[in-house]
Design brief:
CATH class of the largest domain: Mainly Alpha
CATH architecture of the largest domain: Up-down Bundle
Distance between the termini: 40 Å
Largest sheet: 2 strands, antiparallel
Low-confidence stretches: none
Number of strands: 6
Shape: elongated
Length: 460
């Protein structure tokens, strides 16, 4: 976690503002208070505490203003160092703000982990909604790129070397289908993750007697959350699932970012981030146009695995309450959610304004003077010679073309053994990159169809 001064410096670049507000101290305190207010209403409705007490506690929560939350968070922070968690000072301060008839019943039957885990779930619900909206926008932008550049030829690179012709539409379609899978993951984990944690001191709700189940059911309804089959505080798979989904998403966004970083290289210049005043400059070199948005995405993809690892390592809670494992999550998960939010925001801005250069893509296809079409010629020749012999012949022709600094087409036309099986017209056609795109167009169409289905499903 960055120190506060570093957060002020870097958060505007690397964190979505709305997500930062949800994860702020005030945002967390507010959601803990939401739990306490809902608990009081639920217990009053079931008859565990007096109705007047439930009303007084609920009113104390609801009358807090946003400005007061910052002050309350600061006071709670001062008490956390001694108490070991923010809930004890929170309950003390809430009790002091509650009218006399409600004070004895604040936090009745609950425990620290009920409040903190449920507040975390409430944070995730709001953040997941923001992520879904951003992913929908990103999918729309990537679909637009895939559609517009369905047949725009460019170099496919393997192990950083020219491989075969492909299309920029297919590259964008690959990004798009990964984003669609992340939208599915977000939707799939919701019913498992958006669940109330409510177990009391040791997970039995013993302090509520026989009415514990009724309170839990009413509390879940008050908060709009699912009711877990059992209290889950020491079963951290829900938190692990949030973390792993974020880690996978950051990996995809980082991959997209890295592709753009490479495409922006001076030697390629195939695509550029959208231009904006002051974006991507150098403190010393006036000519530079550095990747900024893509760098945020790559940074998130690099940072996320370590954060996810910490969350997964913290799953092994001892018995019904752990010492230290939860503490490892408290700072790590918010940081993971923040870097994910920043990368997602950057990706949307990048995709919506990406400056694609088809002319440079075509120039780079021609840069190796026909060598990129070697497989196409080999396959055509293989029909007469067999694949292995054709491979040897064309490999030798590639070496001659490099040595003589000539186009591969000329080396092929000069080889009598090759031309015994191919006509000059065939050879000429084989060196058209757009003739060797295979199923690229069909793959783009399939990705666009998946995007349409996804939008239809969202509308439904």
């Amino acid at each position: 976690m960055l120190p506060s001064h570093a957060a002020r410096l870097f958060d505007p670049l690397m964190v979505d503002e709305a997500v930062a507000a949800i994860l702020s101290d005030a945002g967390y305190v507010q959601r803990m208070l939401v739990f306490e207010g809902a608990l009081a209403r639920a217990e009053a409705a079931v008859g565990v505490i007096p109705a007047k007490a439930g009303l007084a506690i609920s009113r104390a929560v609801e009358t807090l203003h946003a400005a007061e939350l910052d002050e309350l968070a600061a006071a709670i922070a001062a008490g956390t160092a001694k108490a070991g968690s923010p809930v004890i000072p929170l309950v003390t301060l809430l009790t002091a703000r509650t009218e006399a008839q409600g004070q004895p019943y604040v936090h009745w039957g609950a425990t620290t982990q009920d409040v903190m885990d449920t507040a975390l779930v409430l944070q995730w619900r709001d953040i997941a909604a923001l992520f879904e909206a951003e992913l929908a926008s990103l999918a729309d932008a990537l679909a637009g790129l895939a559609r517009q550049h369905r047949d725009t030829p460019m170099v496919a690179r393997t192990v950083m070397q020219h491989a075969l012709p492909t299309t920029f539409g297919l590259k964008a379609a690959g990004w798009l289908t990964a984003v669609l899978r992340h939208r599915e993951r977000l939707a799939q984990i919701a019913p498992r993750v958006l669940c109330l944690q409510f177990g009391g001191a040791a997970g039995t709700l013993a302090s509520l007697g026989e009415r514990g189940g009724a309170v839990a059911e009413r509390l879940a309804s008050e908060l709009g959350l699912g009711l877990a089959g059992t209290p889950w505080h020491t079963a951290r798979d829900r938190v692990g699932e949030i973390a792993t989904v974020c880690g996978l998403l950051c990996g995809t966004l980082g991959k997209i970012g890295r592709d753009i970083v490479l495409m922006m290289q001076t030697d390629l210049e195939e695509a550029f981030e959208p231009a904006a005043a002051g974006r991507g400059g150098s403190s010393t070199m006036p000519h530079k146009r550095n990747p900024v948005l893509a760098s945020v995405m790559v940074g998130a993809g690099t940072a996320a695995p370590g954060l996810v690892s910490t969350i997964l390592s913290a799953q092994m809670h001892e018995h019904e309450r752990a010492a230290g494992s939860g503490h490892a999550e408290w700072r790590t998960l918010p940081e993971l959610l923040k870097v994910t939010s920043g990368a997602l925001k950057a990706a949307v801005t990048l995709a919506e304004g990406l400056d694609v250069r088809p002319d440079r893509m075509r120039a780079n296809l021609d840069r190796t003077r026909g060598l990129i079409m070697a497989e196409a010629v080999m396959m055509a020749l293989g029909a007469g010679l067999g694949r292995l012999e054709a491979h040897h012949r064309i490999e030798a022709a590639c070496k001659r073309a490099r040595a003589d600094d000539t186009h591969l087409r000329d080396a092929v036309l000069a080889d009598a053994a090759i031309m015994a099986h191919l006509s000059p017209q065939q050879v000429e056609a084989l060196f058209d990159p757009t003739s060797y795109l295979g199923s690229a167009g069909a793959f783009v169409d399939a990705a666009l169809a998946a995007q349409t289905r996804s939008k239809d499903g969202s509308a439904a």
